[in-house]
Design brief:
About 35% of the residues lie in helices and about 25% in strands. The strands form 2 sheets. The protein has a 9-stranded mixed beta sheet, with helices on both faces. Strands 3-2-6-7 form a 4-stranded mixed beta sheet. It has a domain at about 5-25 and about 65-80 and about 140-330: Ribokinase (UDP-N-acetylmuramoyl-L-alanine:D-glutamate ligase, 3-Layer(aba) Sandwich), CATH 3.40.1190. Helix 4 runs parallel beside helix 5, helix 6 crosses helix 7 and helix 8 (about 280-290) runs antiparallel to helix 9 (about 295-310). It has about 350 residues and is α/β, with parallel strands linked by helices. The radius of gyration is 20 Å and the shape is globular. It has 10 helices and 13 strands.
């Protein structure tokens, strides 16, 4: 990579503060309960864990939102939370990061979707997850909530630079909302990160699945990288996308664009990954933001790859700041000193 390319990246990153992105999708509460293992219970063959503390963080679309906020852009969430203490905590976190919550609807009869993780370990050691308990939405939301979400989409479509869909399968993206987003994509950049429903978003601009999500959506399995690229190219054409960015863990990323052109992007940073939790959210956020700020799809993918390389070295669903991103890129370009030849 050359000094000129570094300057291009720095210019794109300097524009982050001027961008405005709407994130629509499922906000999940990631609840972590920490404890110390004491003994086996006399009541059942299970571990007794002494409670030491807990923490609640925004996950899924919430992590995408925090990533964009940390990167310095203006982000407006469109979502819903329950009228419960967990939902209240998430609202406080968003407001503390300068994220507006006007378009987050509160549903009194449906609790906040929560992933409760019990982690146990001795003092001064890394605690390991013992069990996870999920509190999920049982079905579609009331029609009144859907109407409010649709109103928010229409209000924002002429005010934002892009819509980023973070669909984790918790029913926020109803058929009516899906139709509205596909209509919005005719005039506004729309990027989709969907765990289970990629095919239903056919016709939007961009998708950012991981390799497992791509294979599931395509209904095909890849035995090697060559087969995965073939599946990706066919999927890209079938869904009439502008770009398809497939994340491949420690194998980096593959970008499909420009009528089927394929660009392989090796992993950034060390091969040793600490935690991939939330890395896909970071990639989708950074890819969308970079594109909005004038990056080509290739450069947006490279910046997203750098961002992914940072967050997988952090524990939990992590974010990064522009200065951190620039420093990482500089270290990748000149690991042994400022040689730009």
């Amino acid at each position: 990579m050359t000094l000129e390319q570094l300057k291009i990246f720095e210019t794109i990153i300097s524009r982050f503060k001027n961008a405005h992105i709407a994130v629509i999708g499922d906000i999940v509460a990631d609840q972590y309960i920490f404890g110390k293992p004491l003994k086996l219970s006399r009541e059942a063959p299970v571990l007794v864990v002494r409670y030491d503390g807990e923490r609640i963080l925004p996950g899924s679309a919430g992590n995408t939102i925090l990533n964009l906020a940390a990167l310095g852009c203006r982000v407006t969430p469109i979502s819903r939370l329950g009228a419960d203490p967990t939902g209240g905590t998430l609202l406080e976190i968003f407001r503390g990061q300068g994220v507006p919550t006007d378009f987050i609807e509160i549903t009194p009869d449906t609790p906040t979707t929560t992933k409760m993780r019990i982690l146990a370990g001795d003092d001064h050691t890394s605690k390991q997850q013992v069990i996870r308990i999920d509190k999920e939405v049982a079905g579609p939301f009331p029609e009144a909530i859907e109407k409010k979400i649709l109103t928010h989409i229409q209000e924002l479509r002429s005010k934002v630079d892009a819509f980023l869909v973070s669909d984790y399968g918790y029913h926020l993206i109803s058929p009516g909302i899906l139709k509205a987003l596909k209509e919005v994509s005719k005039t506004c950049l729309t990027v989709v990160d969907s765990r289970y429903r990629l095919r239903e978003f056919s016709g939007v601009h961009v998708m950012t699945p991981n390799e497992s999500e791509l294979q599931a959506a395509a209904g095909k399995s890849a035995a090697n990288e060559e087969e995965l690229i073939s599946i990706g190219r066919d999927f890209y054409h079938a869904l009439k996308l502008e770009a398809l960015l497939v994340t491949m863990g420690n194998h980096g990323m593959t970008l499909f664009e420009n009528g089927g052109e394929v660009t392989r992007i090796p992993i950034a940073g060390p091969d040793e990954i600490i935690d991939v939790t939330g890395a896909g959210d970071t990639v989708a956020a950074l890819f969308t933001l970079s594109r909005v700020c004038g990056a080509s799809y290739k450069d947006a993918a490279r910046l997203a790859n750098f961002g992914g390389g940072i967050v997988v070295m952090k524990r939990g669903a992590a974010t990064l700041r522009p200065s951190e991103l620039i420093s990482f890129i500089q270290s990748e370009i000149t690991p042994h000193g400022p040689d730009y030849s």
